Amino acid sequence: MSALRNLVATPLCGIRRPARLRWISARQAGTRLYAHPPGGFTLIEVLLAVAILGAGMGMMLTAASRCLAAMKQARKYQEAQWTLNRGLLDYPLLPTEEVDDWNVSGETYENGLTFSRDVEDEPIEEEDGLFIVRSRVVWSEKGRESREEVVQYVLNLEAIE
Description:
Elements: H1 2-6, E1 8-9, E2 16-17, H2 26-29, H3 43-90, E3 104-108, E4 114-119, E5 130-141, E6 144-155, H4 157-160
């Protein structure tokens, strides 16, 4: 029984020690004081993983913001096309009108875009009655003016006669 009392197993390294509670250092024991082999990641591995993850997230955020900006610009140009078509329907080029009546000074629609139309005063050639008609939609974003323009060649037979 006394022999059993003198030797008690240590759970950390499996080294038996006397019952007098004398601790053996790792150098004296010649082994590390781990109950099992070390697991997990080192601090450098964790920092490297966080840096790679941060760089990937930054690139994804940049790509997403560019995609949203492109979608917004495409939506604005689509809205400009709709406004241009609406302006052409509201102010058609009728052959019964005078050429000066084809001009539209500026019609602002509820979406904030402005439709206008200009007819060049002089025909392309004096006798042919062919006119250049420029229909445009103008809008402003962040202090910058943008426009969408359609150029039409219109033959006015009354100008020939």
